[in-house]
Automatic annotation (TrEMBL):
Name of the protein: Uncharacterized protein
UniProt lineage: Eukaryota, Viridiplantae, Streptophyta, Embryophyta, Tracheophyta
Length: 314
């Protein structure tokens, strides 16, 4: 295990000031971290301790539901992200549920009704409040990247077409059976960005460009901001989606929350500013939702080593 650490960048709302002289330096710090590692750790005060406690408490209620209820969380052709995932032979410790359009009242209510037909107001409110608070962090990061690259307008149109998936992940402890310590197998995310939050129990590992794995320590009020495949295409390969996995140790269960961003109703194309003689165009414009279909439903997409390249690479 590498002793490397990911950069920690303070993005607390109280310290964010886009009109300050040092703003562009801060934007370049964020963009540089993403270019180098594909991710960084943001300290962020937009989620209060109370909200954090609520959202993790809600996760216990959710995972405690009977499996026959949890499997009702399915996905469809318009929103083809995974629904309930669990009892997979290669990842026996892992269980997960995804809430589509988690930032909208309709999205949070639909999911809540599906899980608790007689209602669960507190769960629904927690999901909405948490998702909205984390979206704010996503928007800050996207705008910082856009500022560094001078592609602000392009970024605003992407933000207007962004939909959000909130995923609750639970990992059982391996109980000393270290051969079965895989929580989640190595993968890149298919999103534009993913914002992960882990509570107390570590387990997430990120692969560096030279093939070493970095363990991510849970820090208070911190979020892991990670680029997905779509970000790699959007930035013409400047920011690569990092490979990551979860390995469980010790005797504590682990809960994490991921907010994933997807673009709907607008094709993702590389801003002209990011294409020139030295940086030739590496990806064609593409539809993000169709890309998810490709990965989930086609053999080529399922087996490709780098699906974003095989889907829309030039
Ligand atoms: O649990 C984690 O920290 C990572 C989860 C993850 O990689 C994913 O949901 O795509
Ligand atoms: Fe992931």
């Amino acid at each position: 295990m590498a002793l490397l650490k990911l950069p920690v960048i303070d993005l607390s709302l109280k310290n964010i000031n886009p009109t300050s002289n040092s703003w562009i330096t801060k934007c370049d710090e964020v963009t540089g971290a993403l270019e180098e590692h594909g991710c960084f750790i943001a300290t962020y005060d937009g989620v209060s301790q109370e909200l954090e406690d609520r959202i993790f408490l809600a996760s216990q209620e959710l995972f405690n539901l009977p499996t026959e209820v949890k499997v009702l969380n399915t996905s469809d052709i318009d929103t083809p992200y995974d629904g309930y995932v669990g009892q997979i032979p290669v990842m026996p410790l892992y269980e997960s549920l995804g809430i589509e359009n988690a930032t909208t009242t309709e999205g949070a209510e639909n999911f809540t009704k599906l899980m608790w037909p007689s209602g669960n107001e507190s769960f629904c409110t927690s999901v909405l409040m948490y998702s909205k608070a984390v979206v704010e962090l996503d928007e800050i990061v996207m705008r910082m990247v856009a500022k560094s690259y001078g592609i602000e307008e392009h970024c605003e149109s992407l933000l207007r077409s962004t939909v959000y998936l909130l995923r609750y992940n639970k990992y059982l402890c391996p109980n000393g059976n270290e051969e079965n310590s895989v929580g989640i197998v190595p993968h890149t995310d298919k999103s534009v960005m993913t914002i992960l939050h882990q509570k107390q129990v570590k387990g997430l590992q990120i692969e560096t460009k030279d093939g070493q794995w970095i363990e991510v320590d849970p820090l208070p009020s911190s979020f892991i901001v990670m680029a997905g495949d779509a970000c790699m295409a959007w930035t013409n390969g400047r920011i690569e989606a990092p490979n990551h996995k979860v390995i469980m140790e010790g005797n504590q269960e682990r809960i994490s929350l991921g907010l994933f961003t997807f673009i709907k109703g607008l094709k993702i194309e590389i801003p002209q500013k990011l294409i020139d003689e030295d940086n030739i165009q590496r990806f064609k414009e593409f539809d993000h939702i169709k890309y998810i279909h490709y990965i989930r439903y086609t053999n080529e997409g399922k087996t490709s080593k780098c699906p974003i390249k095989s889907y829309c690479g030039i």
